[in-house]
């Protein structure tokens, strides 16, 4: 399917995203401002932020809090190393272990997850692994010890986290994986972006941008910034971009790893231009992880030039994160093959809730397609970054 044909379907996609956002906001009757402190206490549906030391200060009643604002507040607490707990009325407890909640993309997944948990009345325990395998392993083991009813997580490492899934299997606790699969153990469901298709769409977008600039495909000299090939997302995005690029006739002059880290993306850009100074296009496997490093490197090289000026380097991002979208508005990023991250979190909690009650998720594998973003639609509210920014 071409990018043009995908765009013909954006009205249906737009409606779906707006409905997702509406369901998050309608889960609470009265939104509060993002800067307001939550009320002191609540008899039911209350939120308690419990620190690792066991403190449990009072927090807001869910019926009085915008779930997007609440999710951002709780994500901040978890990112500081606190254990965050949400109390519902269903009696079902779901443990959520995120890789790092200071990452825009994972925060968006968490916002979707928390919104769905509020809707279902689930109890939620949230932990932030600080992007470390050993932390995530220990946290999931702790969830097993606490006998939660289900575990939802984004694996820090697809291979290493298989051991945690096996332990949960042995304890009879269903596990839902988000964003990335594991290589071992049995997950009740995997909710992820169709990362192969996201990579393919990135290649299609690059070809579309090149055509707009009057650059022939054979004249492209492309730097592909890889994610972490130890993760399924890293492998699949590379597969999609590379396979589609070969079909289109791309000339990829460098494929360099970043391991989803901005500093490594910065070094990769500097190294690539030192070896290939005529690079005229860059594909980033994750704008959330890489963009700040790429921009910094491009500025230092004197190559950070807007699209309406001579010398512009074509930049194709992935994920639909706030920083690349803002750079697109400024004329520096040309396209983004975005994810549906709010939906990912919502689908994962729905699957976990069903599995915790002895049911089965609607599908063992739920793959969400790409959301192509260009300058002409960058401000549309159904993109997850815009939805979050306009929800409070």
Q: In terms of per-residue confidence, which ranges show pLDDT below 50 for 5 or more consecutive residues? A: 1-20, 22-63
Strand content: 15-25%
Q: Average pLDDT value? A: 85
- The CATH class designation of the largest domain is Alpha Beta
Assign an overall shape.
Answer: elongated
Looking across the biggest beta sheet, what order are the strands in?
1-2-4-3-5-6-7-13
Instruction: Give me the Rg, rounded.
Output: 21 Å
Structurally, the number of domains stands at: 2
Share of residues in helices: 40-55%
How many helix segments? 13
Would you give an account of this structure?
This protein has 392 residues and is an alpha/beta fold. It has 2 domains: 3-187 and 340-368 and 381-390, Response regulator (Rossmann fold, 3-Layer(aba) Sandwich); 195-338, 3-Layer(aba) Sandwich (Rossmann fold). The chain is built from 13 helices and 14 strands. The strands form 2 sheets. The chain has an 8-stranded mixed beta sheet, sandwiched between helices. Helix 5 runs parallel beside helix 6 and helix 9 (262-275) packs across helix 10. The protein is elongated and about 60 Å long. Residues 1-20 and 22-63 have low confidence and may be disordered.
């Amino acid at each position: 399917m071409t990018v043009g044909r995908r765009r013909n379907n954006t009205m249906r996609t737009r409606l779906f995203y707006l409905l997702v956002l509406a369901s998050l906001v309608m889960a609470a009757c009265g939104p509060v401002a993002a800067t307001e402190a939550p009320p002191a206490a609540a008899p039911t549906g209350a939120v308690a932020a419990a620190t690792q030391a066991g403190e449990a200060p009072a927090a807001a009643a869910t019926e009085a809090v915008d779930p997007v604002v609440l999710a951002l507040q709780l994500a901040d607490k978890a990112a500081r190393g606190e254990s965050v707990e949400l109390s519902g009325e269903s009696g079902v407890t779901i443990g959520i272990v995120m890789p790092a909640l200071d990452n825009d993309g994972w925060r968006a997944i968490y916002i979707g997850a928390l919104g769905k948990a509020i809707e279902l009345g689930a109890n939620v325990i949230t932990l932030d692994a600080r992007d470390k395998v050993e932390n995530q392993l220990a946290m999931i083991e702790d969830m097993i010890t606490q006998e939660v009813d289900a575990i939802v997580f984004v694996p820090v490492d697809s291979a290493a986290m298989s051991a945690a899934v096996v332990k949960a299997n042995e304890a009879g606790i269903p596990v839902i994986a988000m964003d990335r699969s594991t290589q071992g153990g049995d997950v009740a469901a995997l909710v992820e972006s169709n990362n192969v298709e996201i990579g393919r769409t990135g290649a299609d977008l690059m070809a579309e941008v090149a055509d707009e600039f009057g650059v022939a495909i054979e004249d492209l000299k492309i730097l592909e910034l890889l994610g972490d090939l130890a993760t399924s997302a890293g492998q699949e995005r590379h597969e999609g971009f590379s396979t589609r690029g070969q079909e289109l006739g791309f000339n990829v002059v460098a494929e360099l790893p970043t391991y989803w880290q901005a500093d490594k993306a910065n070094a990769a850009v500097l190294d690539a231009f030192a070896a290939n100074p005529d690079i005229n296009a860059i594909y980033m496997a994750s704008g959330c992880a890489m963009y700040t490093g790429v921009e910094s490197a491009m500025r230092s090289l004197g190559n950070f030039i807007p699209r309406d000026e001579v010398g512009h380097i074509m930049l194709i991002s992935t994920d639909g994160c706030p920083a690349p979208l803002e750079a697109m508005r400024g004329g520096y990023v040309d396209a983004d093959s975005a994810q549906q991250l709010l939906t990912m979190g919502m689908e994962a909690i729905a699957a976990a809730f069903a599995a915790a009650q002895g049911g089965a998720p609607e599908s063992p594998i739920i793959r969400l397609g790409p959301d192509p973003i260009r300058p002409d639609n960058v401000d549309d509210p159904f993109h997850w970054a815009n939805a979050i920014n306009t929800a409070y």
